[in-house]
Amino acid sequence: MMSREIRIATRKSALALWQAEYVKARLEEAHPGLLVSLVPMVSRGDKLLDAPLAKIGGKGLFVKELETALLENEADIAVHSMKDVPMDFPEGLGLFCICEREDPRDAFVSNTFASLDDLPPGSVVGTSSLRRQAQLLARRPDLKIQFLRGNVNTRLAKLDAGDYDAIILAAAGLIRLGFEDRIRSSISVEHSLPAGGQGAVGIECRSADSAIHALLAPLHHRDTALRVTAERALNKHLNGGCQVPIACYALLEGEQLWLRGLVGQPDGGQLLRAEGRAPVESAEALGVQVAEQLLAQGAAAILKAVYGEADPE
Ligand SMILES: NCc1[nH]cc(CCC(=O)O)c1CC(=O)O
After folding, report:
1. Residues in domain Porphobilinogen deaminase C-terminal (predicted)?
2. In CATH, which of 3.30.479.30, 3.20.20.140, 2.60.120.280, 3.40.190.10 is domain 1-100+199-220?
3. Is 242 in the pocket of ligand 1 (CB under 6 A)?
4. Residue 106: CB within 6 Å of ligand 1?
5. Which CATH class is domain 222-313?
């Protein structure tokens, strides 16, 4: 028997609400007559918007409250940015749908300059992502990286207030919120390898809720799911939390996955890179294999130094 109603747990940020509305619209389109409602809630990550993520520590900063709502049957599905979803799920919950990926790249946003290469020496760039910082500084050691957190709208407002010469954001968030015209240039994945899952929206629900799984099936995008599976396996093998200098990006070449991974020192002094190819059936093994190559080059020491500075709980 099909459920007749689906309640979507979502954070209240503009991007989270956009993604929840997107899933709602797609569910209604796939299942005429289905009732879909939103259950907005505040996550711990949202309450701590002023602290550097690496210092807050703790995985799943943006998803725990939503998962509690699922477990207590106050909502049926939770919509997440895959980039923010931890590797492991609480007992009874799982990820049952990954939607088609938006542009996975990082975007260069500035009111003055057209691209990274245009920035004069010593320019101030806003980002709080160690992954972006490491790759930026490796290419441009002269740049000054300045702390920047908050929702997409807040970050754009801080740029407009004149605090930065440029900021780096995920292209996907800007595009979804209608700010595509703020992107001065998209940074190639060769220059800024994205975070695992960047640009993809995933749906979590109760593992036993087969009626909900059936309703979600039309929203699932196989190619995106295979790519994100390989990326997440790499993150998991490196024990990557939500804020570490780890990047990974998978592409499909026919029925073969090509996965690139990177671990960088936050100051850009060292960037470790590895890559591999495997048939789609081996997506997870590929993630582990590329992670192993990074470990063999010394990734553990870099990550340990970063975790050592963090102050979880
Ligand atoms: N960490 C916050 C976050 N989570 C997902 C996105 C962008 C959208 C996406 O990657 O799907 C962002 C903002 C950003 O990194 O600029």
Report:
1. 226-295
2. 3.40.190.10
3. no
4. no
5. alpha beta
The verdict on the CB of residue 19 being under 6 Å from ligand 1 is no
**Element holding 27 (H helix, E strand):** helix 14-30
* Residue whose CA is at the smallest distance from ligand 1 atom 8: 173
Which is catalytic among the residues 76, 84, 103, 209? 84
Q: How far is CA 78 from the centre of its chain?
A: 15
Give ipTM to 2 decimals. Answer: 0.95
Tokens encoding 94: 């799982």
- 246 band by pLDDT with thresholds 50, 70 and 90: very high
Fold of 106-187: D-Maltodextrin-Binding Protein; domain 2 (3.40.190)
Strands 183-187 and 106-109: antiparallel
Place of tokens 């972006």: 132
